[in-house]
Amino acid sequence: MEQPAYQVALKEAAQILGRSDVELDRLMTPDRIIQADIAIQLDSGETAIFSALRVQHNAARGPYKGGIRFHPQVDVEEVKTLSSLMTWKCAVANIPFGGGKGGVKVDPKKLSPLELERLARGYVQAFVKHIGPNQDVPAPDVNTNEQTMAWMMDEYSRIKGHQMHDFVTGKPVALFGSKGREMATSLGGKFILDLMIDHLQITKRPIQVAIQGLGNVGGGLAKLLSLDPRYKLVAVSDSQGGSYCPTGLEVSEVLAHKQTNGSLAGFPYSHDITNAELLELDVDVLVPAALEEQITSSNAEHIKAKLILELANNPISASGDAILNSRGISVVPDILANAGGVTVSYFEWVQNREGWYWEEGEVNGRLQKLMLEAGQQIIKIADEKKVSLRVAAFLLSLERVDRAMRLRGKLVGRN
Ligand code: NAD
């Protein structure tokens, strides 16, 4: 695995802010890593044991916040990276949370719904001393969803003996999740995309867009683009490959084709392409919305897009990022581009604590305000300091986290 782009950007931001290696180390090191083995009864009556962890990176600005993933390849280094990204992302969005992330090493496809429910409840039992609405607020991540969050909320409430809606976010709206959460990451990304198109003075119409990954986030952005005549979606892909049509894809038909056929292959009036080919298409905007480490030293020279919007976490390696920067390609970093999800998770937590629920328009309006404030500040810093958008985003977030730590007395020395 190549070094993630965020580590190099964070270091550059720390140097610009005059922070020492020791201080940077303090800001990069997680507060704690908690591990547990979760034993559950299988439907067969046998017992199975799964290793689980929660990484709590930094709580200087508020409770730890971050998803829990169920995946066979859950590994502590990856969860540490993702928990760190959550710290910087919450600080960019200026919401009162720190960063955390959790996972269970399991292939969820091999478990029945009842076994998954026992595992979700087991996770809460194993970590109950360390998580909670004022300590660490979980959310869904890879292979967990609103049903998982409903079970976790119920288990936590059962243990505590009273209703605790604010224990997790990403709950079903019927169980007091927030309206607008499902589309929040895509909508936040669209607000930032519009801002960057204006900032970069891209006047060409329509703006041609390619999206890698047609899941929750990529599919949501595709729908939003189809409602905006300034944009034309020309290519999309999923894990099995993609479709490309230079004159534009009909988004509702693409989504329906994938739903019916299980893949994009054979979508009419388009060419089938591979994921590698999608990344190198001659488009205006490229949106990685699937996996980490998609653009690296091996393909960054061949990227033709003028603007890359990182809706996935960590899709570009440090060496890939350096090549893109040297070629003048603008990259909107993940900690800004996909911060809409955790921002509306924050709104969900606020609504649960108030017991007072907002209409979708109010959620989206507040999301737009926070996303644009963050985007405008990052553009300003990038222009003033002559740095990339990624380094500018880390300058903003590092300064906020660093200040909170000094005010709490957790970092001492120069201010
Ligand atoms: P998802 O599981 O709904 O969708 C993932 C998509 O990627 C699927 O369409 C899948 O087919 C596709 N995919 C998988 N392997 C691929 C490959 N090799 N090439 C191309 N496509 C491939 O997941 P999601 O919730 O949409 O999340 C996507 C990314 O966005 C992840 O990196 C996630 O961490 C990040 N993210 C999600 C949210 C959120 O609110 N869901 C918030 C912030 C960041």
UniProtKB/TrEMBL annotation:
Gene Ontology molecular-function annotations: glutamate dehydrogenase (NAD+) activity; nucleotide binding
Residues the record lists as binding substrate: K65, K89, S345
Active site: K101
Record's keyword annotation contains NAD: yes
Chain positions of site Important for catalysis: D141
One Pfam assignment: ELFV_dehydrog
UniProt-annotated binding residues for NAD(+): T185, N216
Residue intervals of the Glutamate/phenylalanine/leucine/valine/L-tryptophan dehydrogenase C-terminal domain: 178-409
Keyword field: NAD, Nucleotide-binding, Oxidoreductase
Protein name: Glutamate dehydrogenase
Phylogenetic lineage: Bacteria, Bacteria division Kazan-3B-28
